[in-house]
Specification:
The protein has 293 residues and is an alpha/beta fold. It is built from 11 helices and 7 strands. A 7-stranded parallel β-sheet has the order 1-7-6-5-4-3-2. α1 crosses α2, α4 runs parallel beside α5 (147-153) and α10 packs across α11. The longest helix is centred in the C-terminal third of the chain and has 20 residues, at 227-246.
Length: 293
């Protein structure tokens, strides 16, 4: 199995007004991110608006990403569903398309108990032959993974990673201590350098689409144990995270990419695009961080 580590941008899903995936734009973005040195790619993460896309659109995003990556970096495709059977079908389809791993996300409407949550993720891992990354984001998920469930799932031979977006670095340390062998990816909501310090292996985040070169530089500083330099860069990069936290994340990332020359389109309705004032705020933050490294 692959050993995933480093910077994995959460890709946007470029969609035109008719609902078609802009495969040429997505392909160009993927190529540029690989050239910038990212270590992998994650289509259909939160920034990819997975909750707003049809299954056909999702599959096209994954297919396009895999084709554009051309085996140069691993592709971990997001799998998200309310029903277990749907999640299993997605995971199998994305593996057949050539995904190197899957990012397992739980959507829920009715409340679930721990055994049901555990069964959902275990079913996905049982259905594929590629590594599975657990994804937990209590800010947006009705049902989260408890530390006990994570520890039990970590014993599964294909559940080898977790991407935690809780903003709670202490929770990450508890996961590392209790789930031997489960490797941790940070989210942009955490301070990635701090997560690397406690044993993280990288981060999966939307802002890395916009500042890939700087993100890779931060990762290399952390890997090299150059913590003073890493924190200096992290403090400067944090400004863009603060800006993106003020507005809809997908809208911010799409706005920033549009400023950079990628015609990725607007967020999928009922989300809205940023207005002119909000766009100017993003542009100002982007201009500052693009000067770094």
């Amino acid at each position: 199995m692959s050993d995933f580590h480093g910077v994995f941008p959460y890709l946007v899903s470029p969609v035109d007004a008719a609902g078609r995936i802009k495969t040429d734009i997505l392909g160009r973005l993927v190529g540029d991110l690989v050239t910038a040195g990212v270590h992998g790619l994650t289509p259909l993460g939160s920034t990819g608006e997975f909750a707003y896309l049809s299954e056909q659109q999702r599959a096209e995003v994954v297919r396009t990403t895999i084709k554009a990556a051309s085996g140069r970096v691993p592709v971990i495709a997001g799998v998200a569903a309310t029903a277990t059977a749907d999640a299993v079908a997605q995971a199998r389809r994305y593996q057949q398309l050539g995904a190197d791993g899957v990012l397992a996300i739980l959507e829920s409407y009715f409340p679930l108990v721990e055994a049901q949550v555990e069964s959902y993720f275990r079913s996905i891992a049982d259905a594929v032959d590629v590594p599975v990354v657990l994804y937990t984001n209590p800010q947006f998920q009705r049902t989260d993974l408890s530390l006990d469930v994570i520890a039990r799932l970590s014993a599964h031979p294909r559940i080898r990673y977790i991407k935690d977006a809780s903003t709670n670095t202490g929770r990450l340390l508890s996961i590392i201590n209790r789930s031997a062998g489960l490797k941790v990816f940070s989210a942009s909501a955490h301070i990635p350098a701090a997560v690397m310090l406690i044993g993280g292996v990288g981060w999966m985040a939307g802002p890395a689409c916009v500042v890939p070169r700087q993100s890779v530089a931060l990762y290399e500083l952390c890997r090299g144990g150059r913590w003073a330099e890493a924190m200096a860069l992290q403090r400067s990069l944090w400004r863009i995270n603060e800006i993106f936290a003020r507005f809809n994340l997908a809208a911010c990332i799409k706005c920033a990419l549009d400023i950079q020359g990628y015609d990725v389109g607007d967020p999928v309705p009922p989300q809205r695009a940023l207005d002119d004032k909000e766009r100017a705020i993003v542009a100002a933050a982007l201009a500052e961080v693009e000067k770094l490294t």
